[in-house]
Please model this.
Amino acid sequence: MIRIANAPCSWGVLEFDLGEQLGYAQVMGEMQQTGYAGTELGDWGFLPTNPDKLKQELEKRSLNLVGAFVPVALANLENHETGIESALKTAKLISDAGFGHAFIVLADDNGTVPERTKNAGRIGNGQGLSQDQWRTFALGADQIANNVKEKFNMRTVFHHHCGGYIETEKEVDTLMDLTDPDALGLCLDMGHYRFGGGDPLNALKKHYNRIWHVHFKDCDPNIARQSRREKWNYFESVGHGVFCELGKGEVDFVSIVDELVNRNYEGWIVVEQDVLPGMGSPKECAQRNRDYLSTLGL
Model:
């Protein structure tokens, strides 16, 4: 059974300090009102960090908790210990609240490496990790996933992301090759994969056995081309609407849904339409995104 969630980033609640964010009561209420059955945790501290309060607020709105984003700058070995601590802290909150089925959604500390942030959507040769950094990155990802699994019996997926070190098709492939398939899965984000230059349908087929969690995000090809032409950084691209409403970009969601259904995917699809704080009309967009998915049988 496929179930549909949304995430706080669709309301401009991001892990980046970019301005005043909406409160969780409004965001969760609008998720429920627009037909979603679940949410992700968002940045630490957005939703309550007391497990009883977290469970109460979710149950009040009939929302499941399906994942929690944990950014860690894994290319630097000195960050691994604090990364493990952050992931375990998050996993403990989720577990204590009764949502041990949720995923730790591990990612690079996106937006913190100037060259990658500046060139998001157009990464070229010489802008990636060295061989030593790759080994360090993969080691850290596996260590976090194994710690979460051992201590809380929860699974971890890695979220590739524009503005971080794992953005392009080749980078996703390399990380999958270097990490333990029994410990670390892949959170395939359709919009980030497309903006990073890849075909998400091909990625779904190639890495299906590693894809334990799915994010539905679209990518506007005209804005993506303009971003490359005018050399916008990641945040400028998001601010101009590179991640548009579902069905209005170039991601082939019809074929992607067919692929998921034909493979008997049983899990969550999380809608994410990344916007900056105060940008657009999130509730209306969430409703149109949910309505679009209904036309695909979801």
Observations:
- Residues 131-152 form the longest helix (22 residues).
- The chain has a mean pLDDT of 96.
